[in-house]
Amino acid sequence: MLPSFLILGVQKGGTSSLYRWLVRHPHVLPARRKELHFFDREHDRGLRWYRGQFPGRLREGWHRVVRRRPVVTGEASPSYLPDPAVRDRVRAALPDARFVVLLRDPVERAWSHHRHFVRRGRPVPPFAEAVERERRDDLAGRRRPEDARGYLGRGRYAEQLERWFEVFPREQFLVLRSEDVFASPAEHVRRVVDFLGLAPLDPTRWVGEFDVWNRGLSLDLDPDTRRVLEDYFAPHEDRLVALLGPTFRWRRGTSRATSGSMARS
Q1: Measured between alpha carbons, how far is 111 from 107 in angstroms, rounded to an integer?
Q2: CB neighbours of 251 closer than 8 A, spacing ≥ 6?
Q3: Cβ neighbourhood burial of 233 (10 Å; 0-12, 13-18, 19+)
């Protein structure tokens, strides 16, 4: 099988939790692992390798014939959304796929991104220093390819989605706010299930506990750095609202109250 859906992002937005909830649906078969990274890091392995990471035709056929129900499969690699090379690779391999995108408050996402590196022991500069370097370079027009995956780059959601909307119809996308998903998981899992065309089963019965994977600790962000981030992201958030509607404007302050319960990836 090849996937019929991809969870494109974002990193530190709760994709791990959503994927694990979703693959408990009786009509969804999981990939060998949640993040395959075929369309960014592993593309040289070829489509045959990618196909091999999903259930085979025999298993799919057994579900269709014996259990009399169609099944789907998919993966969740949150680095797909911001990577400029991924879009066209996906279009060539999966033109009819459906895409789920979780967007988290970009200020909180950036802070969580840095804490993730620190927890893993990666040698990273202090958060305020890294943000200021990336901000200065961006405002001076000195963007580098790797900046798309930076603390600020990953939070420029509108430009990422606009790039995908250039080649895929918008109806192939379901874009949700991470905060809303974690506030009412059953409601939003039901929306994802409906979007994927699956049987409308009650998520509270087949998910069980809506446990949060890779839960992060809530740590206060320095107020000055927070203001820098809020000012930086303000025009990008305006652009996102113009693209998707007013739902995608974050209320600063409420995001801090929920950040401790958000997933790391």
Answers
A1: 6
A2: none
A3: buried
Dihedral (CA of 121, 6, 158, 251) sign: negative
Closest CA to 173 of 246, 90, 265, 237: 90
pTM: 0.89
- Six-digit token string for 251: 């209320």
Residues 81, 240: contact at Cβ < 8 Å?
Answer: no
* Radius of gyration, CA atoms only, the chain: 19
CA distance 7 to 27: 17
Helix axes 15-22, 185-195, angle to 10 degrees: 70
Which among 47, 69, 36, 40 has a CA at the least distance from the CA of 1? 47
CA distances from 221 to 112, 164, 177 (A): 10, 32, 21
Delimit the domains of the chain by residue range: 5-261
Q: What is the spatial distance between Cα 109 and Cα 219, in angstroms, rounded to a whole number?
A: 13
The single residue listed with the structure tokens 């405002």 is 139
Q: Strands (DSSP E) along 94-159, which ranges?
A: 98-103
Q: Mean pLDDT for each consecutive 10-residue tract of the chain (265 residues)?
A: 95 94 92 96 97 82 61 94 96 98 96 89 89 90 77 95 98 97 95 93 86 71 94 96 96 48 48
CA–CA separation, 126 and 109 (whole Å): 16
| CATH 3.10.50.40 for the 5-261 domain, yes or no | no
